[in-house]
Structure formats: C-alpha cells, structure tokens
Write a structure and sequence with these properties.
- By secondary structure, the protein is mainly alpha-helical.
- It has a single domain, classed as Ribonucleotide Reductase, subunit A, CATH 1.10.620.
- About 65% of the residues lie in helices and about 5% in strands.
- It has a two-stranded parallel sheet with strand order 1-2. It has a two-stranded antiparallel sheet with strand order 3-4.
- The radius of gyration is 20 Å and the shape is globular.
- The mean pLDDT is about 90.
C-alpha cells in the first residue's frame, strides 16, 4: 500500500509536500550556535587542513550543469512511466530536494552565527555544495512544472532544535547513507543502462562524493572530541543509527515501484546500503548495528507493516481511525524499543579517520 498522501500534480502540491514535517519526511534543523563556535579541531589538524584543501579545490564546480541530452532524455523516458510510478519518482525528487536544502540551511545558519574560523570555513563549503544539489533537483522538478520556492520553504517549514552532538551523529549518518544510496543506484544503473529512466541518475557518482566528504568532516569533528564517542553518548549513537536505518527502510518500502523500475529489489537494496554505511561508520563509531541478524530484519519489516496499518486507518477516517492509529503508535514504539535493546557489534577505531570513497 502506498503512503497516505495527496498526489503531486501542481507546483503547489510539491511545495506543500516539502513543507510537511513527519517521521518520514526530511526536517529542517537549528542548533546551539555558541556551542558550535567552541569546537576545537586541533587534534586532527593535519587531516582537517588536507580536507579544507579538497573543499577549496572544488572538483565538482562544473558538475551540476545539465548537458544537451538531458531534456531529450526526459522527453523520451518519462512518458513511459505509469502514473503511479511517476508519483513515486516525484515524491523521491521532492524528498531529496528537501533533504539537500535542509543541509544547506543548517550549514549556512551555523556559518553566519560562528566566528570560529575552522567551523565557519567548513560550513561555507558544505552550504555551497548542498545549494548546488538542491538547485539541480529543482531544475528537474521544473521540467514537470513543479519547481519548489526555496525561499518560501525556508520561511514556512518548521524547524527542529538539535544539540550539536545530535547534529553530528544524525548529519554524519545522513551524509554517509546518502553516499551509500546514490553510489549503489549509480553502480547498478551503470551495469543496466536500460533501467535508467531519468537522466539525473547519470550525475550520482560525483554527486555522492560530495556527500561522502561532508560525512568525513563530521567524522573529524567527532574524533577530535572523543568524549562524543564514549560513555552515555554511545546510547545516542545507537539510537541515531537505528532511527536512520528504520526511517530509510519504511520510506523505501512505501515506494517500491521506484526501485522496481531501476531493476532493484527494495529489501536487497536497503540492506546493501546498510552494509556500506556500517562499513564506513566504523571510522568514527565504536559500535554498529547487526543488520544481518534475522531478528533485526524482522523488526524493520514489522515497523513497515505497522506503518501500512496506520496509513490504512488514516485513509479510512472516522472515530475508530484514531484508536487504531494510537495502537499503531504503541506498537511502533514497542518494536523500535526491542530493536534498540538488541546487542551491537563492537570494534576499535582506526588510527586514521579519513576514508576513500571506494564503493
């Protein structure tokens, strides 16, 4: 069953979709700027300065330009999609744009509110990258007459406050899982070009390297401040790992036609992405989730079934709908809790933090 949502048929629909703040939709964040200003990266100074040189080199400065074949491919391929598949793809584009623009806003706000030269420089570069990503997606939405008013989105979408350490955990994972998602899709379509139903996927390889580098930035910040990786903070790391994986799993399974059109099986795709993200996150997190454990997989499947039941109750409406949705909420909380209580995989952190985007 598809999620209960209005179809995206007009620019107003697309903007309303982007403004929504739900468990499955990307959110906008704000944080403690004074705390961000106090971050010290001296313990990783050598790696930090090399990374800043990479940002300054800006190897993707000319990447996000549509080539001459882009419009022709859109005109040829998109009419072949069913109306249901078209909706899933548009939902994917709006969600991806909102996520990219969320990073742009957060990084730009931090940049404006700090004086720390290291953090200001980093946030300037990352906001630049995310702005390009969001703008590139918006061009594809405009092909359908569905461009998003980014200025209005910034003014009207609700903001969620996160402590800096929550920003580090969540955004690090968001950037790294973004890399894993994009590179998995790119590699698959590279081998199966007949399944590439939109030209935007041709940009994914170099695009996801931006995401990878952003994650490296937060990895260095956390390794420079090792208290973020010890004691009670390990519980927060485990929480954000599970929350990010569970959200991706449920969201992806609500739009299965998107993966089917690319020749991907949703379960296999998700667990491939989880394995890549887990391998990467060992650079900074002292623990990982056992995503191959049958109990873990059954738990994620159960969360999706609960989500479907909640959507069905919402669609049906009426007095009993509220009771059913309340029960679904309790069941989801209980299932998430059981997943959270599962044992994790422990490992030592490597001497060198930086990794190469080699997947």
């Amino acid at each position: 069953m598809a999620p209960v949502t209005a179809p995206i048929e007009t620019a107003r629909d697309a903007n309303e979709k982007a403004v929504q703040s739900t468990l499955l939709n990307p959110r906008f964040y704000t944080t403690d700027f004074d705390a961000m200003d106090r971050i010290d990266v001296e313990p990783v100074r050598k790696e930090w300065d090399l990374m800043m040189q990479e940002y300054e080199g800006d190897n993707n400065h000319d990447h996000f330009q549509r080539d001459a074949a882009f419009a022709d491919e859109v005109a040829l391929l998109m009419p072949q999609l069913s109306p249901e598949m078209r909706q899933e793809f548009l939902d994917f584009l709006v969600s991806s744009l909102t996520s990219e623009f969320s990073g742009c806003i957060l990084y730009n706000e931090i940049r404006k509110h700090v004086t720390n030269p290291d953090i200001k420089q980093l946030m300037t570069y990352m906001a630049r990258d995310e702005s390009r990503h969001a703008g590139f997606i918006n061009q594809s939405l405009r092909d359908f007459g569905l461009g998003i008013d980014l200025g209005d989105l910034k003014r009207t979408k609700a903001y969620t406050y996160f402590k800096p350490k929550y920003i580090f955990y969540a955004t690090y994972l968001s950037e790294k899982i973004g890399y894993a998602r994009y590179i998995t899709i790119f590699r698959h379509l590279e081998k199966n070009p007949d399944k590439r139903f939109h030209p935007i996927f041709r940009w994914f390889e170099r695009w996801c390297n931006d995401e990878f580098r952003h994650g490296e930035s937060f990895a260095l910040i956390m390794r420079a401040n090792p208290h973020l990786l010890r004691g009670g903070n390990r519980l927060w790391i485990k929480f954000f790992l599970l929350a990010v994986y569970a959200t991706m799993y449920v969201r992806d399974h609500t739009r299965p036609m998107l993966h089917e059109a690319m020749g991907l099986e949703t379960d296999e795709y998700d667990y491939t992405v989880f394995r890549i993200t887990t391998d990467i996150s060992k650079q900074v997190f002292p623990l990982s989730l056992d995503t191959d454990n049958p109990k873990f997989r059954a738990g994620l499947s159960r969360l999706f079934e609960i989500s479907k039941a909640n959507d069905a109750a919402k669609e049906k409406g009426g007095v009993f709908s509220y009771a059913t949705r309340a029960v679904c909420g309790i069941q989801a909380f209980w299932t998430f809790g059981r997943l959270y209580m599962m044992d994790t995989l422990e490992h030592e952190l490597p001497i060198n933090t930086r990794m190469a985007a080699s997947w």
